[in-house]
Specification:
Alpha-Beta Plaits; binds adenosine-3',5'-cyclic-monophosphate; 4 strands; 40% helix; alpha+beta; 4-stranded antiparallel β-sheet; disordered N terminus; nucleotide metabolism
Amino acid sequence: MSSSSPEERTLVLIKPDAVRRGLVGEIISRFERKGLRIDAMETRTMDGEFADQHYAEHVDKPFYPPLKAFMTGGPLIALVLSGDQVIEVVRGMLGSTDGRKAAAGTIRGDLSLSNRENLVHASDSVDSAKREIALWFPALG
Ligand code: CMP
């Protein structure tokens, strides 16, 4: 299928900072109002080994140890969303990684002031979506 298929899927994590701050409803509501479908949704708490698998491309980066501590430090909400060009659409809705620089109107631009505690993760390509969905929701992979 092409990347413009209506069946495209992405893996979204509503991170522990969003759960702690009571922003889960606000964030899911934005995805619903956009017209995206929720194919799976579950509360999970990552352990260190799972975090290393999820963030395989970042494990050697200097920002990884505090990122790992943050991401394993409390429950998060894992979702699989689907819709037309959902990968690109959701990345646009999140805004830039750094909440201080993200545009107003985006989730991070409106709600985050941090480069690490930036509320939401979403797959950045068709390949990473496939890999991440298989990791988090093997029954859907
Ligand atoms: P995410 O989309 O989950 O992918 C990698 C995460 O690492 C990113 O969101 C941020 O939470 C974090 N991150 C990326 N760059 C930095 C950085 N320079 N300093 C701190 N955290 C970062």
